[in-house]
Specification:
Length: 232
């Protein structure tokens, strides 16, 4: 394989949903398939990087000699797994759809339907990207995702600042055949001090190439990326 800028770069990726237990048989989760995060992992591997994929429960499997997959369920488990790897990471991509809240108490036994109504009290989960944004070094590149229904660019720019991302991949819920479960996606890349860059609807594998290319540009900084990075 040709040497590329990403050869031996250490990449940490979160992917998929998290599951927050209610009792031993029930949980709160979301529709994330993990496809986008896994496609990004595959693209980084194609470019020679070493990847740690911290994945919530998904129906995808990816094998590669330079890939370590850490399977987790809850947001707390995802955070703890990332804590092991973040310090030695060159690039962190927070692609997981982390549940923002979890049940305040997890019942030890299956909850029975004794009452006519039932309330679950929720408490906030750790914001994984925000926590690592606080300790990120100048040489580390951090990338987040924003899935929005309205005022998309304003929200994406807000997340860029709040979570100290170098780049946000924006998805709009208003775009057909993009986001949850689809094999296609339509993104806008938002970086600090640059005009947002809109991409057309593409297969997630192609979108992953665009994302990894944009991350490479961040890594290169002042160098001309075209001569250093090859995308087949
Ligand atoms: N994220 C995370 N940990 C969380 C919540 C979000 O790491 N507990 C990451 C996601 O992986 C994504 C980014 O933060 O890269 C944006 O997540 P999102 O849920 O869209 O943003 P929030 O800041 O939680 O804002 P809101 O839900 O209010 O839109």
């Amino acid at each position: 394989m040709n040497a590329t800028l990403l050869n031996n770069k250490k990449v940490l990726i979160t992917a998929g949903p998290t599951r927050e237990a209610i009792d031993p048989v029930r949980y709160i989760s979301n529709h994330s398939s993990g496809k986008m995060g896994y496609a990004i992992a595959e693209q980084f591997l194609n470019q020679g990087a070493e990847v740690v994929l911290v994945s919530g429960p998904v129906n995808i499997s990816l094998q590669h000699p330079r890939l370590k997959t850490v399977k987790v369920n809850s947001a707390s488990e995802m955070y703890l797994a990332c804590c092991h790897y973040f310090e030695n990471t060159d690039v962190a991509v927070f692609a997981a759809a982390v549940a923002d809240y979890r049940p305040a108490k997890v019942a030890g036994q299956k909850i029975k339907k004794d009452e006519s109504s039932f309330t679950i009290s929720l408490i906030k989960n750790v914001d994984i990207a925000y926590e690592f944004g606080k300790i990120k070094s100048a040489s580390q590149v951090s990338v987040g995702f924003a899935l929005e229904t309205n005022d998309e660019l304003t929200h994406a720019q807000g997340k860029l600042q709040k979570k100290n991302f170098d780049m946000v991949v924006l998805n709009s819920m208003n775009d057909a055949n993009a986001t949850f479960g689809f094999d296609t996606n339509k993104i806008t890349i938002v970086k600090k001090d640059l005009q947002p860059k809109e991409f057309s609807l593409k297969q997630k594998s192609e979108v992953a190439k665009d994302i990894v290319k944009e991350i490479s540009v961040l890594l290169i900084g002042q160098y001309e990326h075209k001569e250093l990075v090859r995308f087949e």
